[in-house]
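Narrative summary of target 7.
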Amino acid sequence: MNYSYKGKILISTPDISGDLFSRSVVLIIEHDENGAFGLILNKKNTRMSKKFENFFDFKIEVYDGGPVDNEKVFFIIKGEKVSDSYTEINEDYYLTEDIEIIISKIMNSQINIENLKIFSGYSGWSSQQLDREVKRKLWTVVDLYNIDYTLPNDQTLWRNIMQNLGGEFLLWANAPEDISLN
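Modeled conformation, tokenized:
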């Protein structure tokens, strides 16, 4: 491995598969010689959102982090670290799986829900797999430093990033969801 995509954003290339990665924006949390770990930022999971609403008396959205281990829950938090068990994303954001601490902090109003994003599952790649997928142009790697990882995002995030990249990406941004209709 010559290069790490840790901290980078992956933008999926449009395809006709219609799978979870279609039109996805993925934040890469870890990437080394053993593989890569990331979370999809723009795919909501209504089933898990309903489960979480049982814990709280307000609406909460959960996102599909990826197709791996969907019962596992991850949290991206903006601001102060509220758990001793975390992975730093950058100086403003960190990731934790410490569900008991997070729920307790939410219930006691020690975490503002706007500074939190919940994910079910994750995206994982084996050694060199992500490098091969980038080389085959299944993903475009983007350096984005001004994105709020905790914002509620949907497909407009993918489209907006594609439009900002310009060129052929602008064509993809304006293509129909089912590109076979184009």
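The two ends are 37 Å apart (CA to CA).
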